[in-house]
Amino acid sequence: MAETKFYATGKRKTAVARVWLTAGSGQFKVNKRTLEEYFGNIDIAKIKIDTPFRLTDTLDKFDIMATLKGGGKSAQVDALRHGISKALLEVDSENRLTLKKAGLLTRDPRVKERKKYGQKGARARFQFSKR
Hints:
alpha+beta
């Protein structure tokens, strides 16, 4: 019998996380590296990524294989958390209410605003001089 894999895509800013969950013991592979190798010793990253598992009581029940592209490390952590939450929804649809209340299923729509022509930045203007 083939292993059951659950797939989901998570996004944040310009970061995209493709996440596959398989039954296992809680091993992480992020871009073919361990979580510590990829993100370094960032404690907040581990805490954020474990949140969906703690809420659904599935800590150390799944192995995670993910590919991350784009954005910075912080956005990638949030994208990975979003992807894991959506994949857990594929595992068991009864997790929906728990994850939804925690706000883990909503994609954070905030992205950097583009710079406008004739301006210093997205909102900043050049200083006005009357004379």
